[in-house]
Amino acid sequence: MDLSPDIRRALAARFISRAGSEAAFFIGVWGKAAYSLHATPHQLALVMFCLSAASIAGSVFGGLLVDRHGPKRVIMGAEAFFVPIALAVAYADSITMLVPLVALWGLAGSPIQTAGASLAPYLVDDRSSLARMNSYLESAGSLAFIAGPVIGAVISRAVGVDAVFVFDALTSLAAVALFWRSRIDGPRKREHNAGPFSELAAGIRTAYGIRSIRFYVLAGTVTWLGFGAFGALEPLFYRDVVKTGVEAIGYVNAVFGAGILLGATLLRRLPRSAISARGLATAVALTGAGSVLYVGTADLRIIVLGALAWGTVVGSLEPLLRTLIHRDTPHELIGRVTGTAQVHKQAGELVPLAFAPALAATIGVQQTLIAGGLFTALAATLGMLEARAIDRAATVPEPVEIQPLLASDEPISPVR
User: What per-residue confidence (pLDDT) applies to 186?
Assistant: First the structure.
């Protein structure tokens, strides 16, 4: 694939911005809560619950804005709005203060994630290139997943954990500058009668009304339901089970990021038959198994190997899921359907927070995390019959009837 200057800028912006957010999350939010503010499991669950709830709202409207204005404008606006919020989180000196600031951080950041997840169809001219483009985007994000936690750990050790949020703000400014120079088309505006809620409903009807898309969205939901407990318990796993400092979270998650990079690269080399519902179900099952390997022992050497194996599967799963959604979704609804998938992802992370702390208190932190991985593997295995039926149908899905679309009826050139 010929990588135009605009594609290179988009990839660079994704790397830089995500490096900042990964550093801020793993070292800033988790590290500050668990190590600086000595959060309990219930307090960490509250932080993650508010983060997920705010992110859901941001994803919903982020998807609508992508379909109205294109991902470039959404990313630039959200990144600029994100800067003062990231700086404000650095001043939180209690869990009570941290919770609402992290919620705002998630509200501002989730439209960036949704727009970034919607980028591929705007960067390629034909849908046969979607898997490769999503692989490139995921590779950029994977490199950031490696670099971000390591940079965050170094900054935290040298300057202090609050300086990580300053780094996060600077990366957002850099992303704005890169997208400012890019020429990525968005939907052409035209007069329409539908209000924002009608437009959102159209995206939701498409996500639930097309059998294949519904399966893809639910497969992603199962994945994150199984991993939702990690948001509240993974820092405690390192603190109480593995008995390491906050830096270990950054370094091991950098290994996890290396696995994601490897998995994203492998996606470009998979046979076309793997870009399927069965391929997705298999990947979800393997992610569950990988997470069990990751937290199955307190031996840091095995944890590192588990992080690499688990990350490799996740690295293939994420772009595969997006490619399937992009392939089967009408172009003018990409943002809203992607936003719906993001909402499911964040809801999947949110729901386990309601019972993970109590379950951890009953059976233990490590055992709760293992149970989440086993649930994911089992649910994906049970969904294999539906996946086979979808692949056997092998037909292009017909879009459901929706009220006035926002994009022009004329073909759109993704990149000038």
Answer: 61
Structure tokens at 42: 């219930």
38: left (phi over 0), alpha (psi -120 to 50) or beta: left
Q: Which H helix or E strand runs over 101?
A: helix 95-117
d(CA 344, CA 63): 13
DSSP state of 329: S
pLDDT (tens digit, 9 = 90+) per residue, 44-103?
888 888 988 898 889 888 888 998 888 999 999 999 999 999 999 999 989 999 999 999
> Residue 148 and residue 154: Cα distance in Å, rounded?
10
Q: Judging by beta carbons within 10 Å of its beta carbon (0-12, 13-18, 19+), is residue 299 exposed, middle or buried? A: exposed
Residue in 277, 265, 260, 378 with CA at minimum distance from that of residue 314: 260
Tokens of 186: 């968005």
Q: Could you tell me which of 162, 161, 180 has the C-alpha nearest to residue 172?
A: 180
Q: How far are the Cα atoms of 120, 140, 202, 408, 410 from residue 191, in angstroms, in the given order? A: 26, 37, 17, 10, 15
On whether the CB atoms of residues 107 and 346 are closer than 8 A, the answer is no
Measuring CA to CA, how many Å separate 328 from each of 89, 200, 207, 240? 39, 18, 10, 45
3-state SS class at 23: helix
Q: Are 59 and 342 in contact (CB under 8 A)?
A: yes
**DSSP state letters, 243-273:** ---HHHHHHHHHHHHHHHHHHHHHHTTS-GG
